[in-house]
Structure formats: C-alpha cells, structure tokens
Write a structure and sequence with these properties.
Layout (H helix, E strand, L loop, with lengths): L28 E8 L5 H11 L20 H6 L6 E7 L2 E7 L7 H8 L4 E7 L6 H12 L4 E6 L8 H11 L4 E3 L3 H8 L3 H10 L4 H9 L4 E5 L8 H10 L11 E9 L5 E9 L1 E3 L3 E2 L2 E2 L2 E6 L2 E5 L1 E3 L3 E5 L9 E3 L13 E6 L6 H14 L6 E3 L4 E6 L2 H15 L4 E2 L3 E2 L2 E4 L3 E7 L6 E9 L6 E5 L8 H12 L15 E10 L6 H19 L1 E15 L3 H10 L3 E2 L3 E3 L2 E9 H4 L2 H8 L5 E11 L3 H8 L13 E5 L2 E5 L4 H4 L8 H6 L15 H12 L37 E7 H7 L1 H9 L1 H19 L2 E6 L10 E5 L2 E5 L6 H12 L3 E6 L3 H9 L3 E3 L1 H19 L4
Parallel strand pairs: 1-3, 1-4, 4-5, 5-7, 6-7, 26-27, 35-36, 35-39, 36-38, 39-40
Antiparallel strand pairs: 2-3, 8-9, 8-17, 9-16, 10-15, 11-12, 13-14, 13-16, 18-20, 18-21, 18-22, 19-20, 23-28, 24-25, 25-27, 28-31, 28-32, 29-31, 30-31, 33-34, 37-38
Helix pairs in contact: 6-7, 12-13, 13-23, 21-22, 22-23, 23-26
Length: 874
C-alpha cells in the first residue's frame, strides 16, 4: 500500500483537536483549568493536585497566604484568587499546564478569558452548596467554549452529605450525561452514545478507556468524581481519571496562538500570555509589527526564559505593545465576544493632585489587563468612568491603583447600563448628497430575542449595488457602537439587513456610505421607535421558611418574578428573575432580616424590557433631535448645495423605492421586495443633475499655473526660509492640519457644518484618511477643544492618522505652534491652514505652509489619480 495514503487526515474542527497545516504526531501537552464558584475549594484542589504530583512539598492554603498559585500580595491579603496563574505538572506520559482561575463572581471575567485556551476543565462543585446559580453560569460557559469537562464534588467529608441526592441534582440541572466515573451507569451512558460501543458493551460488559476518552472530548460524557480536596480524599482517583480519559490535541505546522491575558511583572514589563496552537514561536521572531523579546514559561511565581516554544505550550511573551485579550495570531481568528460583562458603571473620583488626562491614560493601561473595565471619558460630565462587577472588585481596584500609581481613588454611585432595541420591523432610509458626494442606503431593522446582539446581513443584489459598496456598508454597521433614540444607550437584539442602495460612478466616496448608513439606521429607529432594555438577574434565594413571605413580598416590589418554592434541608429555595437595578443591593437586606441565615446568588440573565422605561428616559433627558453626532435627517442636493431634509420627509425625496412594506410581509413572509411611489432615478439622470449643478468634473488646472506660486501634484508646498529638518532628506515628513480651519475653508464642508459640525468633522477625517491611505504619509489633524471645562485633551488613531483634540485653554493654533517649535529640527513639517497669522508664525519657525485651498487641490489630484489607476478595474 502506498505509504502516502496511510497518512492521517487533518481534522478541520478544533473541537476534535485539529489545526491547520501539515499534521504532526500527537503532542504530549495538555492545558487544563479548574473552575468553581467562590469558596468551593478550587485553590485547595489545585494545591492538592500539585502536592500529589510532587511539585510542592506541602499543601498551601489561600486563607493562610502560602498557596503556590496565589502569589500576589492582594490575593494573600484578601484570601481569594484574583488573577489566573499557571503551574506545570506531569500526568503519566503527559505534561499538563494547570490554569487556576478566580472563583469569586466579581472576577469571573478573568476566569472566562482562560476558557478559550483550555483542552479540558475540572468543574468543582461544593457538596453542601450543590448546583448554585454560579455553577449553572460556569456550565453554560464551558458549553459555549466547547470545553470537555470533568466534575469533582468537593467537601463530601462534611456531615450529612448525600452523594445520591447531589448526583440527582447535577444530572437534573446540568446534564443527564454527568455520571460517576467507573460506575455501571457510566459505561451504560457511554454505550448509548454509539452503536458500535453498545454492541461491545453488551458482549463484554466493558468499554475501552480510549473510547470513553473520545466521548468525553466530544462533550458527550461528563465523568464525575467526589471527595475532599482539603483531606486529599478522592484526589488520586481524579488524577487517575484525567490520565486515562484525556487525549492530547494534534497540532499543525502553521503558526497560531490565542492571547488570553495581558499583565505586567514587578518591573512593569508588559506580558502577553498566550497558548501556541500551531507551529512554534522563537525569540526575535517578527509577528506582524511586533518582535518577540523574551519568552517565559511560568510555574507559579517563578518562570523560565526559553528561546523557542512549540504548539501546546502556554507562555508569556514580552515585546508586544498592542496585543489584547481574545486576539488570535497566525491562523487563529479573533475570539468570540465575552459572555460575561459588567452592567454597572461608576465614576472614578480622582484625588486633586492627579491630572484627569494622566489618570485616563493609566486606567486605559489597566483596561488592557481588565477589559471588563471599559474605561471611558465622559464628555458631558467631564469625568472618568469605568465598569465593575461588584464591590469586591472595586476594593481590589483601589488597592491596585495605590500600589501601581501611588494614588488614592474612590468611586461614585453605581449606574445601571441600559440598552435599546428597535420596537418593530421597519425600513430606514439614509441619503447623503452634499456637493460632489452621493450615497443612498436602505436598511431593514428587525427585533430579535434577548441575547441575540446585533446581527448584520445583506439581501441586496450586486446588480443593484456593487459588492465593494455593500462590504463598506457592512463595515460601517460594525465599526462602532450604535445607540438608540430613547436614552442614547447602545443598541442590541436586532438584525440589520441591507436591502438596497445606490452609488454614483464618479461622485461617491467611501465616507458617503458611512453617512448614509448611519442616517438610515437612525431614520428607521425614529420611524419604529425603540424599547428600553435593562439588565436582569436570575437569582436563587435560600433562607429559613419563616422569612419566605417577607422575601416574596420584596421580590414583587422589585418587579421580579418568583417560581414555586422548593426545599433545601431546613431552608426554602426561591428562584426567579428580577431587574439588576432593584436587586443589586438586596443581599444586605437578606442578611439583616434573616439574621445572617439567608444566601442570595445572582447571575446575569441578560437584557429585557425595562420595568420603568418612561421614568428612566425622563431622568436621562436625552433628545434625539438635538443630537448632532447622530443625525436622523438626510442630505439632498438642491440648487447646487446640500439641504437637510427632516427624517419624517425623507421618503418623499429618496431616489430608490422602499424594499419592504408591512402588508408585503404578511402576504409573503421573508420577502424584502415591495412597492413605493417614490421615483427611481437612473445613473444617466443622476449624472445630468450633477453636471447641471456642479459643471463638468474635469478641472481646468491651467488657470492655477498662472498664479505666483506654482502648485503641482508633486510639490504644492511653499519652502521654508530658515534652516530646519527640510535640509535633511532622510527626516520623516509630517503634514499637520488645522481641522476646523479646513472645515470652514472648504465650501462642501462648510455647508455641512451648518447642518452638523460633527458630520463635517467625520467627513474631513474620512477624506484625509483616503488621502493618507494612498500617499502613506504621516498626518496629524488638530481640532480645538479648549472651550470644554475640564477637558484633558485626547488623542485618537483613525485611519492611521493622529486625531488630536486640544485640552481646555489650548487652541489648535497654540498646539501647532508648540509642536512645530519642538519638532522642526527633527521632522519635515508642513502645516495646512488658511490662518494668515498662523502661516507667518510657523513659516518663521522653519516649517512649510500650505493653504486650505492648496490642500484641497492636492487631495483632488490624488483622488483623480486613484480613479485613473484603480476604478477602471472594478
């Protein structure tokens, strides 16, 4: 037989251990994680596993501050696990990397981030507590990330533990496939998963371990173990099961890695923690724009620096400045959106000696390690805001800020984060047609069930709108968080479908479709209206029977629901759902009236209709008509200039008919074709309108050659009169642009600014972004922000350009003068502005000057070059 035909086929699914590239022989590396609810004994089990395998000489404990994995001072002081850490131990012929994760609900986001790199998980359940709400959340997460799972029921040494009752609860609330390992029921469940196994079991009464291992890896079987981690009871049996019933993945030769954590060591070095999922990684290797400086393999607090790591290794890398949690390297795609997220926002109360902009930058650094913080600067209230899971995380964060930055902070009152969704199915229309621009977009907005998020799709024919334009619309729908019209809260649980659209062969730019898309979305929301959504908890309340009446009355007053009660020993268990806003502090009340005997478990259920929508909307005071950043109106061409048409009248002027009508859906479900009395314009008619309004698109450049200053596509700049970096041909060139000066100097932007300054600003950035993308030069755009009280100034990177908003009391002119003075000897600076005084000052400092008109001509020449070079190919 040909040996080539004996080579195994590479599996396509990672769930079955397959990765891209040439198939290598199975590796001996496994990555395991232990997950559990708080106080279930998770770190104690980790210590037992390490002790049993000879990694430690004695078992440490979190509450004693001597555990092998809880190495941070904050963890030792608090007696809880805060950050995930790793340890390495042998398991038969396998090498296992064990990831210990936090158990407290306030740090569950840290736990979730580790799940994406696990080959197997051990779900720890406290016998006395049973299947709590947090255990259910963990189970759902393990399913979401397709992690094969072993279950260990801990604390079974305590008096009154009934293993049979606990197993019944586990099977009822988690899965019927959760079975005690080695029992007859275990083999019976395994046999029922496969006909061949069933025949073998009926003949022999046994099933091979490798067959059981395959079922476990496919999440068709969940072996359960029990004992006491503290007394080392059942730990050896668990380890024996892990050795027999786990399969190491097969890795390919193509490089891939998943980043699950960002941290900093004691010296402040930025560490990117990743699992190599294919090929290998070496020191000094270039990955994208980053270079690997050092590779560390941690084992507890200590690490070993190595020159190369192979697939299956979990390591930390220095040298990467822009990596983020969930990022995929090599063939790995980006990770899925986190399931757990924060729903409470807090204002950070800064000490008087901490400048807000500096604090904002430091918190952005913390957000790299803790993405759930969602650090933001509120322009409206001029304050720094973050999100947190709860009070314990807040206390830890205070300690972390004090330890790292030497600052003492406090937090303001928590604020619930609301969301919005479209109230009914509707078609929104966006039209954008100022001077020499054109785009029209139609979007069908459809409500979806809770938890669906935003789904984007297209049902538009490529004969109607070219594929490239459709992709651009899809990009604009995904590129930012769109907000609703009730409270300006983020949109969710809706499908946005592109049904039709139109571009102009000569006058459509990329930014035109951004404007049309945004306006179509807002137009649809204004037509159909929005529903306000608020976060809800699924709760489980255990308390003595005497207090059940009080609890049920409280839950009703909190606008919650309550399922029929059940017994749990001497206690009664109430379950149901209630708004986060009303239940977030209820644990204090339960502790008080039950004299410490009541226990409340809450897990985030998702977003559902708000119980007091009108009250919240009135308190927020948002007015969609006054929101210039998110306009609902459209821009149409009239008498040679752009005219804003109110959203109520847009359908009277749109150029394409509606694609959807309610009666059409009723007659033919799923159809997106309908009728409209709006007139449909041909490309020839649109071209005639443009010629009549703007004249021919071919510019007569000869008249510019008669001016005193000669402008060409290659030069177009005036030279300096004093010595500067322009005498150094190797110096980097920088184009520094006064943003608002350009807006009010260019007629098309000036007209738009009269309607919406924010739209004009976005369009300018889009125009400059296209220009930069083609020229690949360095551009800095400066906008005034000096009139905003408390404004620390901000810097953003958009389309590879630096967008700077000056701080309070600093004009764009002052910033530009300062920048030129500090950098003119190192950079070849050209300043674009039509401010005569500013031109004289920067010219005297040795920078080049360019007027707004000259920059516009230069961009127009570039656009013409792009059209001639590329557009004929499409």
């Amino acid at each position: 037989m040909n040996q080539k035909n004996n080579k195994p086929t590479l599996p396509q699914s990672k769930a079955s251990g397959g990765y891209p590239g040439t198939l290598l022989y199975p590796d001996n590396k496994l990555t395991m994680g232990i997950v559990a609810h708080v106080d279930a004994g998770k770190t104690t089990l980790s210590e037992g596993v390490l002790y049993q395998n000879g990694i430690t000489r004695q078992m440490g404990r979190v509450d004693h501050g001597d555990s092998f994995l809880d190495t941070f001072v904050l963890e030792k002081n608090r007696g809880i696990t805060i950050f995930s850490k790793q340890a390495i131990f042998p398991l038969g012929d396998k090498e296992v990397t064990l990831l210990d994760t936090p158990g407290h609900v306030d740090f569950s986001a840290e736990m979730e981030r580790t799940l994406q790199v696990l080959d197997y998980a051990i779900l720890l359940i406290s016998g006395p507590d049973g299947v709590t709400g947090q255990v259910l959340t963990l189970w759902e997460l393990l399913s979401r990330y397709h992690v094969p799972t072993f279950i260990f029921i801990n604390k079974m040494d305590q008096q009154g533990m009934d293993l049979s009752a606990i197993m019944e609860e586990v099977q009822a609330r988690l899965s019927a496939q959760c079975v005690l390992a080695g029992s007859e029921a275990f083999y019976e469940k395994a046999a029922l998963c496969d006909e061949a196994l069933l025949e073998a079991y009926l003949e022999t009464g046994r099933i091979p371990a490798e067959s059981c291992a395959g079922l476990i890896k496919e999440r068709k079987l969940f072996p359960c173990y029990y004992g006491s981690a503290l007394k080392m009871q059942g730990v050896d049996t668990l380890l024996e099961g892990l050795a027999n019933y786990t399969i190491c993945p097969n890795y390919g030769s193509d490089f891939g890695a998943i980043i699950y954590k960002i941290s900093r060591d004691e010296q402040g070095n930025r560490l990117t923690h990743m699992k190599i999922t294919g090929g290998s990684l070496s020191v000094k290797e270039q990955i994208g724009e980053s270079k690997v400086h050092q590779i560390r393999i941690y084992n507890g607090k200590k690490y070993e620096a190595v020159q190369q790591v192979s697939a299956g290794t979990v390591c930390a890398v220095t040298g990467f400045a822009d990596t983020f949690c969930g990022q995929g390297l090599g063939f790995e795609p980006a990770g899925i959106e986190p399931y757990l997220d924060t729903v409470l926002s807090y204002e950070v109360l800064l000490p008087p000696d901490w400048e807000p902009h500096e604090a904002y930058e430091k918190f952005l650094q913390l957000s790299e390690e803790l993405p759930e913080l969602h650090t933001s600067w509120s322009e409206e209230s001029s304050c720094l805001r973050i999100r947190m899971m709860g009070e314990i995380q807040g206390e830890i964060l205070k300690s972390l800020v004090s330890e790292r930055f030497g600052k003492s902070i406090e937090f303001g009152e928590d604020t619930v984060l609301y969301k919005e969704t479209v109230a009914d199915t509707v078609e929104g229309v966006g039209h954008f047609e100022p001077l020499r621009h054109y785009a029209e977009v139609h979007l069908l907005l459809t409500p979806l069930p809770s938890g669906s998020g935003i789904v984007v799709d297209t049902a538009c024919s490529e004969d109607t709108l070219d594929r490239n334009w459709q992709r651009l619309v899809m990009t604009h729908l995904k590129e930012k968080v769109h907000t609703g019209i009730l409270t300006n809260s983020p949109l969710t649980d809706m499908k946005i479908t592109l049904t039709t659209g139109r571009a102009h062969v000569k006058h459509t730019e990329g930014g035109d479709f951004r404007q049309a898309t945004y306006r179509a979305l807002r137009h649809g929301l204004r037509k159909a209206g929005c529903r306000l959504l608020e976060p809800y908890y699924d709760y489980r309340l255990e308390l003595p029977t005497d207090f059940v009446g009080r609890a049920m009355n409280d839950i009703q007053n909190m606008h919650g629901t309550c399922e029929p009660s059940s017994a749990a020993g001497k206690n009664t268990v109430l379950t149901g759902r209630a708004p986060v806003f009303t239940m977030k502090d209820y644990q204090k009340d339960v502790t008080s009236y039950s004299k410490g005997q009541g226990r409340l478990y809450c897990t985030l259920a998702g977003y559902f209709p708000c119980h007091n929508e009108e009250e919240v909307a009135q308190a927020v005071g948002y007015e969609a008509d006054r929101d210039l950043e998110n306009p609902s109106d459209s821009i149409f061409c009239k008498s040679g200039s752009g005219v804003s048409v109110p959203w109520q009248e847009v359908e009277q002027y749109m150029h394409l008919p509606l694609s959807w009508q309610p009666e059409k859906i009723q007659k033919n479900e799923g159809s997106v074709r309908g009728g409209s009395e709006s007139r449909q314009y041909s490309d020839e008619e649109l071209e005639a309108v443009f010629k009549q309004t703007y004249g021919t698109s071919k510019r007569e450049t000869s008249r510019f050659k008669k001016s005193a200053r000669i402008i060409t596509a290659e030069s177009g700049f005036s030279g300096p009169r004093i010595k500067s970096a322009y005498n150094n041909a190797s110096a980097e060139e920088v184009l520094l642009i006064d943003g608002y000066n350009m807006i009010f100097a260019w007629e098309e932007l000036k007209d738009m600014a009269a309607l919406s300054l924010a739209s004009a600003r976005d369009l300018l950035i889009e125009i400059l972004g296209n220009y930069q993308g083609y020229k690949e030069n360095r551009i800095i755009v400066v906008f005034d922000g000096y009139k905003k009280p408390g404004n620390p100034g901000t810097t953003q990177t958009i389309h590879n350009m630096q967008i700077i908003y000056t701080k309070e009391g600093e004009t764009a002119d002052q910033f530009i003068e300062k920048f030129v003075l500090e950098h003119v000897k190192k950079l070849r600076i050209t300043v674009a502005t039509s401010d005569g005084l500013e031109q004289m000052m920067i010219f005297g400092q040795g920078a080049l000057r360019m007027s707004a008109r000259e920059l516009r001509m230069h961009i127009m020449d570039t656009n013409e070059e792009i059209r001639q070079k590329f557009l004929h190919k499409f």
